[in-house]
Amino acid sequence: MAPPPLKPNPVGCDGFEKNPFKGEYCKKCGKSFLEHEGVIEDAGLSEATRLYEARMRKEEEKKSAKATLEQKKSFEARLEKMKEEKAKEQEDDWFFEETQTAKPSTLLASMGSNVSTGSPDDFKMISAEELKKANEAQKAAQAKPVQIKNLIDFDEAEEEAKEHLAASRSLPSLHGGSPAREKSSPSSPAVPQSHTLPAQSAAPSKEKFDISKDFGARPGGGGETVDELKAELQMLQEERSIQIAILKDEYEATIDSLRQKLQVGGSMPSKPSREQDLEAELEAKAQAATVAQTRVTELTQELATLREQQEKGTSESESVATTLQVQITELSGERDALRAETEKLRSEALAAAEGAKEARASTSKAEADVLALRSELREQKEKVDSAEREARNSVQEKDTAAQDLRNKIQSLEAQIAAGRAEEQSQLAEMQKRVLDTEKQLAEAEKARDANLHEADGVRDDFAQYKGEEQKRMDAYGEKVRAENEVAVTELQAAHEAAAKSQEQRHVAERTSMREDHLRELEEKAAQMKQDADAQSAALAEEKDAVINELRADLSKVEAEVVAQKETMERKDAELVELPDLRTTMDKQKEIAEELLKQLTDQKEAAKTLEREKAEVEQKLAAKQTALDMQGETVQDLQQKLLAAEGALSNMTKELDQQEHHLEEIHARDKEKLGKKAADLEEKLHALVTDASKLGAQNTAFQREVDDLKAQLDAANAEKNHLAEGHAADRARLQEEVLEATDRAVELSKGLAPETLKAQEALKKAEQEVVDLRAQVSRLHSQDAAFKEAKMQNDMLLQARSVGGDLGKEVVDRYLGEQRTIYTKMLEQKDAIIAKYQARAQTGSASPLATRNRPPNELLNGADISPEDSKSGSKRRADMQPPSVVSVPPGGAEESKGETKEGSDPLGGSKSASGEGGASDKEMAALRSEIIRLRDQMARQRIEQKKLVEEAGRKAAQQAAKAFRDVRLNAEKQFGWLFARVPGEVNS
pLDDT tens digit string along 489-541? Predict the structure, then answer.
């Protein structure tokens, strides 16, 4: 069977992933592969299609096998019913075999066969030949096969049938008039000698309505819907009305034929009623009275003839007259008796006629009711038989289903145990991976610290190199001053050129060394950062995938266990006896409502825990991201925090969608349970109605009930035996439900402090996030100040660097300023020499040793005050083009490195102010202030790093603890849903 067309996924699944237990369903979203249009690969689609076709093929084979079995059972039941009906027909043939022939009356036989007057009302005796012809005609009329259907139990009405049979045999059979009448009216049509009752009128047609034949047997009786039951009820009512109409027509035809036979003297019916018997008896006595009156008239005529002969005086006439007188006297007494009896019979006939009229008026209705009751009785009897058979089949099927269910439960328990073991192994593996990740992170941090230590060592080496270079330069300066002390004016130009070239060379060397070292450090830091990010991302994805897989497996197993438990509850509810069905159903409904309420509460608690868990995990991910981002800039940290907040909002939306989906599933399950409950109530109402009808007709079917009691006792014994086993199972399940309820209550009590702890941890984490954001804002301000200082330092470096962006013009301008300063210094030197010569007699040291130095020597040992630094930087910024005033690509970190590594590129801090130079105290104060600011910034960075690491460590510990608590609580809370094998140790 080809699968239906694909549909889009309702929950937005990004790709179909095969479930290892159910290949047709997605491992991510739990939906069928038919709901993954556009997100399923061809290989997965072909595999899922193959599994779908195999499953549908198995279902079709099961359905066909079940239909064949039901058809076979229905055929065997109908065959058995036909055999029973045939046996009943053979048993009932004795009742009608002697009622088809009419026998002469003993009263007419006693009157003699020589009475014939020739009048139209004369009586005719029936000869054997005429009786034989009548029987042959009756047999010819009954040549069609007789079909008789019992509507009542003839064992009960045996005595009444014998009375009716005796009455029908004792009545006279009048087939025609006297010979004179036949001769006097030759043109009149001959009255048929026998009028038989059609056999099919004695009972309705053999064909009857059979639900199992027309609609197929439904063993178990629990799968019909309300519409099917209504349709079957309507068809039953229509069939019943049709059968009642047919029976009415047949009964009216039977009444008409009986009346016609009574009028023409035909044979009595096979089953005469009381009114028909009275009418036939009255008519027979009236005919006998008429015959007696005719006989009296004939005797009176004979007496008159004898009197005439007596008047003639014959002795023979006297003797005859005496004899006749005696006979006349006897006949007169007999006539008087007959007249009295005739009057009595007439009064009885009038009363009977009145009663017959009233009876006829109510007979049709009563007969219709009787026929309806008989048909209902037959249907109820068939229903009882079918119900008994279905009950037996249902007990067997339910026993088999219960055994299958036990096997399924055992297999599910084994699967659950395996799933738990696998889950524990996966959890252990995931914990191991987390530990490995932590170790790798620790190693990465150690490597980073080692690199930082190495960078500090390189910086120290560079500082040492600078110190040595400074010493060399000082030594060189002393040497130059010693050599050129006499001829300082002549060697000034050569010394300036040599100092300039040497300065350029040293600056180029330091710049290249610093750039190479910084480039290496940046490459190492970037590589380590990429490795750490990749490892963290891979571990996070793997952890999320494992958690989602475990959640999906847990939800599916919970759904399967709930479905199995609901199926077992329905099977147990169907085994309860009919009188206790309503009470049991109400109890089961209450239990189901309580379980649904508990399940809803537990689902809500689970959703709350899942949301809290997701929030904690998200915060943990944010903390881990913060830990991974320690080497990055503050701007990247803020962007990732915003990205984490966006991911949290997306996760909240997905959880809301899943919650809405679960609510829809719960509503559908509740609606199905409501429909099932309504169906059970309707079935119970129908069964109660049938039971009331059966109770009303209990007196008519007492014998059948007695016959069925033995079978019912045996079935009840078997059912009680099965019910005891199911009762034990139900008791065990109820104990488990009560135990699970107590555990759920205890768990709900225990969850309150844990929830408060989780909320407190959440508040602490939020406060830490707020603190981190405050620190980020402070770092922003510090970064701005640092960028400004870095910009000034860069401008100073670029202004003093030959390869700077400012070019030759700025360098020439700077050298011009230096020459002006040097000229002023020479003028001051001449003034100081003059003063020295004037004070030579005092013995003071010559200031030439500290004054007569090259410009670079003076600048190397000088410090710049904050005011002079700001003014000089401002003047240089005014002299430089706009391209110089920019933040370097490295940002704050590069500025920090440059400031720390090469705070004095020219061998010391140099002032750009040329208004006579700065004092030694101001320069020393500026240098100490710069050192203090550097130390403060270093301490702030170290403290910030410690705070971030401590906050991340605390958040990770709290999140891990909350995750463990949530997982343990979830296992405790939902562990009762997993059916346990008896004797299994609860892990």
Answer: 666 666 677 777 777 777 787 787 777 777 877 787 788 778 777 877 777 78
Q: Which residues contact 630 (CB under 8 A, 6 or more apart)?
A: 945, 948, 949
Tell me phi and psi for residue 189, to 5 degrees.
-70, 145
Q: Do 111 and 291 touch, CB atoms closer than 8 A? A: yes
Residue with tokens 């809405």: 660
Task: Report CA torsion sign: 621, 623, 629, 634.
Answer: positive
Sign for the pseudo-dihedral over CA of 626, 629, 635, 636: negative
Burial class of 193 by CB neighbour count within 10 A (0 to 12, 13 to 18, 19+): buried
Q: Residue 32: helix, strand or coil by DSSP?
A: strand
Q: Which helix (H) or strand (E) holds 80?
A: helix 42-96
CA distance 679 to 685: 10
Q: Encoding tokens for residue 436?
A: 């490995």
Helix, strand, coil % in the chain, rounded to nearest 5: 80, 0, 20
Any residues with CB less than 8 A from the CB of 293 and at least 6 apart, and which?
335, 338
CA 630 to chain centre: 47
Q: How far is CA 81 from the centre of its chain?
A: 44
Token code pair at residue 850: 């500290």
Task: Tell me the C-alpha to C-alpha distance, in Å, between residue 631 and each of 73, 524, 533, 944.
Answer: 81, 12, 11, 12
In contact, 48 and 23? CB cutoff 8 Å: yes
Cβ neighbourhood burial of 140 (10 Å; 0-12, 13-18, 19+): exposed
**Model pTM above 0.85:** no
Task: Report the alpha-carbon angle 433-532-639, nearest 5.
Answer: 115
Query: Residues of the chain whose pLDDT is less than 50?
Result: 99-120, 170-224, 265-272, 800-806, 843-918, 978-987
Contact 69, 400 (CB under 8 A): no
| Complete DSSP assignment for 551-598 | HHHHHHHHHHHHHHHHHHHHHHHHTS-STTHHHHHHHHHHHHHHHHHH
